[in-house]
Specification:
Strand content: 5-15%
Strand order of the largest sheet: 2-1-3-9-10
Distance between the termini: 95 Å
Radius of gyration: 35 Å
Shape: globular
Number of strands: 14
Length: 718
């Protein structure tokens, strides 16, 4: 094929098309010109433009006049308040205010640096700068974008921080300008500077100059040196990339730029700038900032409150922090204080890995009767403002804690009973094994639950059907996918996993008698005008199992703490039901990635997880969850349950009743029958011991232990 001939034909075709089109365009232009002149369309366009400009100006003028600019200064000094479950103040969001300071408490170096870099004509204009607007207009014409700023004065930036969103649009810029004019009418230049520096964001969850001074240099704002002041002012351009903790080199370069700009603006000499540029910025860093001092006493809980308000109710996170909301939550301050004290003690947790990584952990304390989260710890180690909260955000395998949800509850609904015998042996359709590698052939359901046996769970899921187990787990609120519809569902092998909050909500169904409540922190939100904008004080639950099924499940789960895998976590003072869970590590099958304990009473559900955030060959956990988490979970029980109503269980432990579901009040107080049986069994032990000593000596001890253990397991626990 000749490419040149093809191109030649295309050129000829285009010329012919133009010859045909040209007279039509000329005719159209002539008609359009006659119509334009006939109807004076130039005047119409000008008139419409003026009318639209007038309407827009009137609207913006009205907006500026109706905004309570006179309340700005007092509003910035107020904080959004968070209340606990009994409507007592639990803390305050520091918002974009931080610890508010007055003009006299600000270093003069900060003022000079700020004026030099952000708004040199600050003391000359009246809220807007025509030169700055012209620069922004040129940028729009050249770049077809408003990104890059340049047109906003410090007063306009204050208006944006206090009243507007962060989108760079003409409508926002126009509102910003009119509001700036009103602010200039109401406040002095020094007051405007003070409000701006108290609302500015300085990175790492810190707002306001005073808190930033402590966060980065450990001093009050008044005592900042020249270089420190230049560093903080330089951060305003981009706190995430110019803060010296995370990006020291960037911060140094930005500091030096600010110092040079101050020289250009005649605020200091070149010699002073040069001397300050030689100071090692890294040596000056010293963090004395304490969120607790600003009312952020329960940081992980408060972080989760902000995230929930944004995610569920569509509120803007910055508005939540600075608009004076009253947020009522399910927080129990006794729970939370005790949890924070426990998590501050490293002795409750396994040691760090050989690579030095910290064993992470998260816990939730939830009211099963309404789904309100009463206590929350998001992780161990250093706190990061609104960082990844493991208690509500993580997705990890729940291990065996899923068995009551995906296997045993649907089995009970299908007609199985706690004393029913299950198969405890390997199956051809799914490869699995019990934790200790042994199996007994047959075992009762309540024993399989308490001892967290894997083989009976897989067998039972096969018997009732995968679909039934999958659908029931979905009803409990677990975030499953179609890929989770396999026999590994019996053991917690999920594609994405779940969180302590979701698992606490699921176990709340057993604690309250069958109703699922969505886990949540917020009960009500009231805005600064007094209007109730969120009201969840009467949450609606969904009944997903019957009271009978709930009682049957609870009777078996009581055995986890009395005779099962959570014996080491059981409290001497309180009775709990629940489940443990462990997930096998792919790097070493004798060790685990995740370990769980979930325990509940009719008053509270406690859901706790430990594991490495990034599992690896080094980041694995030895031992079982009951062994590693025993002291931790017992401390949580003893720290939380004294503040509950201590409502007793209405059903007896299946280990006491031999798997029969009996009301707790119907179990004989002294349990005379079991005492008589104990005496008979002990007599048998004595006779067997005599015989065994004669025949095989040392084996007597093991035989005796087995008999005593059998009796002991049937005794009730306090």
């Amino acid at each position: 094929m000749d490419f040149k001939k093809i191109m030649e034909k295309i050129k000829i075709g285009l010329k012919q098309f133009w010859v045909w089109l040209k007279p039509h365009l000329i005719t159209f232009k002539q008609h359009f010109t006659r119509l334009w002149k006939k109807y004076h369309l130039t005047k119409v366009v000008i008139l419409l433009t003026l009318v639209l400009t007038l309407i827009m100006s009137t609207y913006l003028f009205y907006l500026a006049k109706t905004t309570k600019v006179e309340d700005l200064a007092s509003g910035l000094k107020e904080a959004s308040v968070i209340y606990d479950q009994v409507d007592e103040e639990a803390g305050r969001f520091q918002a974009q205010k931080g610890n508010y300071i007055e003009y006299e408490q600000i270093s003069p170096y900060v003022i000079d640096a700020l004026i030099s870099t952000e708004d040199r004509r600050f003391y000359e204009h009246h809220g807007f700068d025509l030169k700055g607007i012209a620069r922004a207009a040129v940028r729009v014409l050249i770049n077809r974008s408003t990104v890059g700023g340049g047109g906003s004065t410090l007063t306009q930036q204050l208006a944006k921080n206090a009243y507007l969103t962060l989108d760079q649009t003409f409508s926002r810029k126009a509102k910003e300008l009119f509001l700036a004019i009103e602010i200039e009418k109401k406040y002095s230049k020094n007051e405007i500077l003070t409000m701006y520096l108290n609302t500015a964001y300085f990175g790492n969850g810190v707002w306001g100059l005073q808190d930033a001074s402590h966060k980065y240099f450990g001093v009050d704002a008044l005592n900042l040196s020249l270089g420190e002041a230049a560093t903080l002012v330089g951060m305003l351009k981009g706190p995430s990339i110019y803060n010296p903790i995370d990006h020291l080199d960037n911060a140094i370069n930005r500091r030096d730029t600010v110092l040079q700009v101050m020289v250009d603006n005649q605020k200091l000499t070149q010699e002073e700038a040069n001397a300050e540029q030689q100071v090692a910025l890294g040596d000056l860093l010293y963090d004395t900032y304490n969120p607790a001092n600003s009312g952020y006493r329960y940081p992980y809980y408060f972080d989760a409150v902000i995230d929930e308000a944004v995610r569920l109710y569509g509120l803007d996170d910055e508005d939540i922090l600075k608009r004076g909301y009253k947020i009522y939550t399910g927080l129990d301050q006794n729970y939370q204080s005790n949890l924070q004290s426990i998590y501050a003690e490293n002795g409750y947790f396994p040691p760090n890995s050989t690579s030095g990584d910290l064993v992470q952990s998260a816990t939730i304390a939830l009211n099963p009767n309404n789904g309100e989260i009463q206590g929350l710890i998001g992780r161990r180690g250093d706190y990061t403002f609104r960082g990844f909260n493991l208690a509500v955000d993580m997705e990890r395998s729940p291990g065996s804690t899923i068995k009551p949800l995906s296997v045993y509850t649907p089995a009970l609904e299908a007609g199985y009973t706690p004393d029913q015998i299950l198969k405890d042996e390997p199956q051809s359709y799914y490869e699995a094994k019990n934790f200790n590698g042994t199996y007994q052939g047959e075992v009762s359901m309540y024993h399989a639950v308490a001892q967290s046996l894997n083989l009976p769970a897989v067998w039972l899921l096969h018997e009732i059907g995968l679909t039934k187990g999958f659908n029931k787990a979905l009803e409990f609120g677990l975030p499953l996918t179609e890929n989770d519809k396999y026999y590994g569902l019996a053991l917690g092998g999920l594609e994405h996993g779940t969180s302590p909050a979701v698992m606490a909500s699921a176990y709340g169904v057993f604690a309250n008698g069958g109703t699922l409540y969505s886990p949540h922190l917020i009960r009500k939100i009231v805005d600064s005008t007094g209007a109730v904008i969120v009201d969840k004080t009467q949450p609606k639950g969904k009944r997903i199992i019957s009271k009978q099924t709930s009682d049957e499940m609870t009777s078996m789960l009581l055995g986890t703490f009395s005779n099962g895998t959570a014996v080491n976590a059981a409290s001497y003072n309180y009775t709990l039901a629940g489940k443990t869970g462990t997930t096998e590590s792919s790097y070493d099958t004798s060790k685990s990635n995740d370990q769980w304990i979930i325990g509940y009473t009719p008053d509270v559900v406690i859901s706790t997880w430990i594991g490495f955030e990034q599992p690896s060959a080094e980041n694995v956990i030895s031992g079982t969850g009951g062994e590693n988490m025993g002291a931790l979970f017992r401390a949580q029980i003893d720290g939380i349950l004294p503040y509950t109503a201590q409502t007793p269980f209405t059903v007896a432990d299946a280990y006491v009743t031999g798997g029969q579901v009996i009301a707790a009040e119907d179990v004989p107080e002294g349990n005379d029958l079991l005492k008589k049986e104990l005496q008979e069994k002990l007599d048998q032990v004595t006779e067997k011991a005599k015989e065994e000593v004669k025949n095989i000596g040392g084996k007597v001890i093991e035989k005796s232990k087995e008999l005593v253990r059998e009796i002991w397991n049937r005794l009730p626990r306090p």
